[in-house]
Amino acid sequence: MISASKLVGLMAEADRRRVVAALILSAGDLAHVVEASGVERRQAINALERLSTAGLVEVGADGIYVLLEETFKIAARAGHETRGSAVGRPASNGDVQVVERSVVDGRLVHLPRKRSKRLLVLDHLAQVFEPGARYSEREVNTALRAFDDDVAALRRYLVDEGFLDRSGGSYWRSGGTVETAS
């Protein structure tokens, strides 16, 4: 996951801003990025490598660069409460009981109907995904199958409630509680 401050740092350099602008305007391969951005080829390559390493741009097997626009939303939400889940929020006894009633022996026995309770259980499920890591749909399904066989429903709940985001066939954790070092 990219932080807002890291995103601002990436955009602080003029060549990277121009390359991002070219990608926003749908420039795809390196030649189009160079042409649309007006940046020299070597600087465009450097900018694309830096943006790719940071997780803002992906390059496909066909050499087409894609701006991961969802990353901007994630960065904007980083550090804020995410739809009912908080960073570093200690769990109350009631929270723990809700999860213990819903997840028995590591398996999801029921998903609460009440949204506030359902968010607690979804937060518990989201903990299997490492913040900042990207997962294929197959990897997400494998992780969720440990809890329940209806992985499509769980995946949909996690995305709809902001615990996971997806783009271009990959998923990443975008919400849920995160243990913070004291």
Topology pattern, helix = H, strand = E: HHHHEEHHEEHEHHEE
User: How is the main sheet built?
Assistant: 3 strands, antiparallel
> Strand pairing plus helix content: what structural class?
mainly alpha
Unreliable spans are: 79-90
Shape: elongated
Please give the order of strands in the largest beta sheet: 5-7-6
The average pLDDT value, as a whole number, equals 84
What's the Cα radius of gyration?
19 Å
Helix-residue proportion: 40-55%
Distance between the termini: 21 Å
Instruction: Tell me the number of strands.
Output: 7
Beta-strand content bin: 5-15%
Could you say how many structural domains there are in total? 2
Query: Number of helix segments?
Result: 9
Features:
182 residues; mainly alpha; Arc Repressor Mutant, subunit A; 2 domains; three-stranded antiparallel β-sheet; two-stranded antiparallel ribbon; 7 strands; 49% helix
Topology:
Elements lengths: L3 H8 L2 H11 L5 H8 L3 H14 L2 E3 L5 E3 L2 H8 L15 H10 E2 L2 E2 L6 H12 L7 E3 H9 L5 H10 L3 E4 L2 E4 L9
Antiparallel strand pairs: 1-2, 3-4, 5-7, 6-7
Helix pairs in contact: 2-3, 6-7, 8-9
Structure description:
The protein is elongated. The strands form 3 sheets. Strands 5-7-6 form a 3-stranded antiparallel β-sheet. The protein has a two-stranded antiparallel sheet with strand order 1-2. The protein has a two-stranded antiparallel sheet with strand order 3-4. The protein is mainly alpha-helical and 182 residues long. It is built from 9 helices and 7 strands; from the N terminus they run ααααββααββαβααββ. It has helices at residues 4-11, 14-24, 30-37, 41-54, 70-77, 93-102, 115-126, 137-145, 151-160; strands at 57-59, 65-67, 103-104, 107-108, 134-136, 164-167, 170-173. Helix content is 49%, strand content 12%. A hairpin with a 2-residue loop joins β3 (103-104) and β4. Residues 79-90 have low confidence and may be disordered.
